[in-house]
Amino acid sequence: MSAEPAVTDPLHTLSVGTAGPRIAFLHGLFGQGRNWSTIAKGLAGPSLDGVRATLVDLPDHGRSPWSAGFSFEGYAVSVASTLRAIDAGPWIVVGHSLGGKVAMTLALTEPDLVSKLVVVDIAPKSYGNLDRFTGYMDEMQRLPLGELRDRADAEARFDEQDPGVKAFLLQNLRREGAAWRWQANLDLFTADGARGDESVIADFPFEPGEVEPFDGPVLWIKGGESRYIKDEDSERMRGFFPRVRLLTVKGASHWVHSDAPAVVTEALRRVVQSES
C-alpha cells in the first residue's frame, strides 16, 4: 500500500485538558473525534490537568478533509502529521475499530511518535469484507437529501431500528443553508464496501514479520459480547505487539467505550499513570 498521506491538510481536532501527558483518540468508521469526549473529560478531570487529550477526526470523517482513496498507511501519515504539529510527542494513542487499525499502523510505522498504544475491539487482520456496514451505507445513500425538511424528517425517513445506531450514523448529516450533505465520505466507503472480499478497509496492511514489532506497552480492550476479537487473534497480535495485554469488558458490545465508559476511563487512567 502507498505510504502517501491520505490528505495533506491538517485533520480537524478537538482538545480536552490543559496539562498532563499527551493522548490522542481515533474513532471508528462513520465516527468522529467527539465520540471520545466523555472518556477524555473523565481522564482530564475537573481541574483539566490529568491529560492533554486530542480528539481526531480521521480523513473522510467529521470536519476533516476528504481523501482520493483509502489507505491505512495514508491515514497514519495524516494523523502523524497532525499530532506532530501539536506536539513532537511521544503520544499515548487510543483507537477504536477502524481507528484502532489506524493506531496500530501508526505505532508500527511511526514508533517514535507513540509511547503507549490502546486498541479497542479490533484485531490486526483482514475481516474479509464490509458486510457489517453495507446495509447502513445503503440506507444512508437512500436518504433523499434534497427532500429533507429538518433533522426530525431525516430521522423519520431513516430506516434503522436500533436508535443508538441511527443516532450514530445521522451524526454525519449536516445542514448547510437549505441543503443537506453527509460529512463522511460516503461514496468512498460505499465503493470500498462494493469490493467485497477485496475491501481495503476490512483488511490490515501488514503481515507479522513484514515490519518491526512495536516494543511499547499495548492495552487491547475487547467487548465481552463482541465477536471482533477471537482467541486465535492473540498470536497474530503478539507478532506485532509483543507487550500486549488483553482486557475483556464484560457485557460490552463492539462499542465498548459507549457501553462501559467508566471501565474504559479507569483502564486508560492506569495506562496514563503507568511508568511503562
TrEMBL record:
Q: Name one GO molecular function term.
A: hydrolase activity
* UniProtKB keywords: Hydrolase
Q: Name one Pfam family in it.
A: Abhydrolase_1
Q: Does the keyword Hydrolase apply?
A: yes
Cross-referenced InterPro entries: AB_hydrolase_1 (IPR000073), AB_hydrolase_fold (IPR029058)
Question: Where does the record place the AB hydrolase-1 domain?
Answer: 22-261
> PANTHER family recorded for this chain?
PROTEIN ABHD11
Its protein name is Esterase
